[in-house]
Write the structure tokens for this entry.
Amino acid sequence: MKSSIPFFMVLFCAFTLTSCNDDDEGPVLIAVESKTASNIPAPQTGGPPTTEEIGGAFTKFSFETGGVTTSDTDWDIAFRGTRIAVNGGTATGTADEPVRNGNAGVSIETGTFADITDAEGLTFTQDADGAYAITPVSDQGWYNYNPQVNVVSAIPGKVLVFRTHDNKYAKVEILSYYKDAPAEPDGFVNESRFYTFNYVYNPNEGQTALQ
Amino acid sequence: MFLFIGFTGCFLSGQEIPPPEDSVPVQDLEEVVVTATRTLRQLSSVPLPVTLISKKQLQKTGVMRLDEILNEQTGIITVADESGFNGIQVQGIASDYVMILIDGVPLVGRSAGNFDLSRLAVGNIQQVEIVKGPSSSLYGSDALGGVVNIITEVPTDSTLSGEVSYRFASFNTHDANINIRKKQKKWGYSFFANTLYSDGYDLRPDLRGQTVSPFSNYTINAQWFHNLSEQWKLFASGRYYQQQQEAELFVNDALLEGDSDIKEYNAHIRLDQHFKTKWNLHYEFYHTSYRASEVLESPISPDPFSSSEFDQNLWRPELRATYTIKPGHVLTVGAGYNHENLDRTFFDDKVTFNSQYAYGQYDFHPWKQVNLILGARFDNHSEYRSQFSPKASANYNIGPSIALKASVGYGFKAPDFRQLYFDFTNSAVGYTVLGYNVAVEKVQELDSQGQLTDILFELSELQEPLRAESSVGYNLGAAFNQGRLRLNLNFFRNDFKNLIDTRAIARRTNGQNVFSYANFDRIYTTGLELDANFRMLKTLTLSGGYQLLYAKDKEKKVALERGEVFARDPRTLQTVALDNSDYFGLPNRSRHTANLKLFYDLPQWNFSTNLRVNYRSKYGLFDGNGNGMIDNYDTTFVDGHFLANLTLNKTFWDRYTLQLGANNILDYKDEENIPGLAGLQLFTKINIQF
């Protein structure tokens, strides 16, 4: 697993930081971060093809650190198979879920990644008893499953806008559910349960801008 | 030319077709069909798009099974499903919605809706009639896309006649036929038997198991014709078909072997009563049974790994009458009763459907140049809402060689047994599929066992009965017939609603879904068909056909218009918004299909040859990029391709015919996407006529 920051992004951030520092009006804002998280593993136990209940620890992710975390509190979203938990609300009731102790929530928006520019005015849903905020059903949440070829593909045009556990905002576009994000995954060959996604994170508390 | 010839023809028999004189050139034949109106009609005068395949075409091309010849007709393609079953698509409408009849009565036994036409041997077929567009006004459920009616041969000769043939082809394929018939003054009979064996073939030697496993099958058909009196005629037919195919499956490196069997029979009795007055009555009784079973066993375990059974039966008495008011004005009425049952694996119990139906049709000439056919049928069913299926069609002869044809009709397909009573859990993946009528009860049962985390619908919403799928079809065409040239042009549009598909209704604790059926899709297929037949020389006939097709889902078009559909470029992973121009359409539909056929005869050498080339443009198999539709960003397209078949015939001493041929001479293969298409196949056949 790795989080990669393209070189030009570093330059871009450096530039905007400088310009912000030159700005004497208002509080100093930290630049919005645009990154790609690659190959975030999302293992699970049980579930098909076995008849056992799905279990196993979720892989927790923090937008602030831009990577996987083992912290029980400072995480925003977590992955296990096709399920994505948010650190807000309550556990849905399946085995081995992390405790929700933050204020995270999600709003699933439709558009290209660039179209979604602000989290202002969106309604954020939190996990609840019996229901993940992101419905883990083909065509109803973030993915489509094609049983003919056994492929899970992220629904293009679904942008997940998150409020983080500490009231910041981020948008996520999932690109792949397969290791190394092959352009045309083979559902019987490629290893699944590896998330690759683009995200934009605004580290300024309460600031909703996502570009 | 424009005379009504039904009356004299149909009292002989409801179905029989007088055999054409062999020496008459093709164009001059009185080509007659029965399927469009249930009375004998001259093909060119029928106001509907009808394709006719003659015995001559079947013989000269050397095909063995019905799917092969249908695939060569304009606007008709065969589409194989996952189990390799070859169903047909007509005007872009899938096999589920096309009715298959033999001598006017339906065949049953479909795999997930698909009717496998390779089940049908062609050795005793007089002609095949395909009526395109909704025909539920005469035939009831399933006839949305059209009707394929197989007309078997009727004995005409007082001496015993017939043929025996043997055909040997690639993949160690052996096909043998015997066909005998005789007609006496009062009675006649025919007997047909076919056996086919093949080793199958393997397109992917890199994978374990064969693409098509070895199989053998038998067909027997015996028919009896009896003129009981001046007034009464009897027709009785019995047909039996049996197939055995090896089955193998690899599960976690273990080989499972077994057999896949099909047994089918039909019994058809009809009494035709002809009054001296203008009445003809037909009393018909029909029964058919289709059984399929598959067993897979592991060599190391005593218990079968899996076994499945499918047992479907249909009984149908029908009474039909035609009343000829005056020449060219015929009233047809009929009534019948369907009793149908199915017992299969994944059903709790044997399930029975009962339905009663009545239909009427008035075929008349309000003016000399105009023929109108008005018809309607009412079906009352035990499991779904009753259906009323009207249809109107008109033929207008502008001149001696040009006619305009128009028709509009309603078609429906009743929810099938599977859609209502299925109870299936996939043991490998863990999802469940429930038939609509058992869904509520089963969901409650699963819930009480603590197997569900969520029920996604109010169960009360599922109390309303599932509706029949329905369509309205429009056909508008023109026919031109002059001398050596015959042209047919037809525009078609079929609007489907209430298509039944699966949706998730509950979620299981294992994370998988419980699916059930619902009416939700609305689709259309539209396009045009052009058919041309030109007898260039006495010895050379050229024919060609083309179909342009757009087949799309209306809901998807709405979503596209709203800008709600996106695609991700598979290489750059950039997401882009799609519009309607990016929407390719429904799976398995080619925008362009075309055929070109050359039939060349050298009577002085007793030689004939024909070359048939078929083209279909690229088509999508499934959505590969997660947006639920096949669009231009998908990478799952099957390339456009040509298939060409060549046959040579040489007759010796009038009765011995040697046939040499090659199917798929371009050796086109797409191992991954079209497993049902073998490469080049050579064959030779000897036919002895007596």
In short: The first helix of chain A runs from residue 7 to 22. The longest strand of chain A covers residues 192-202.
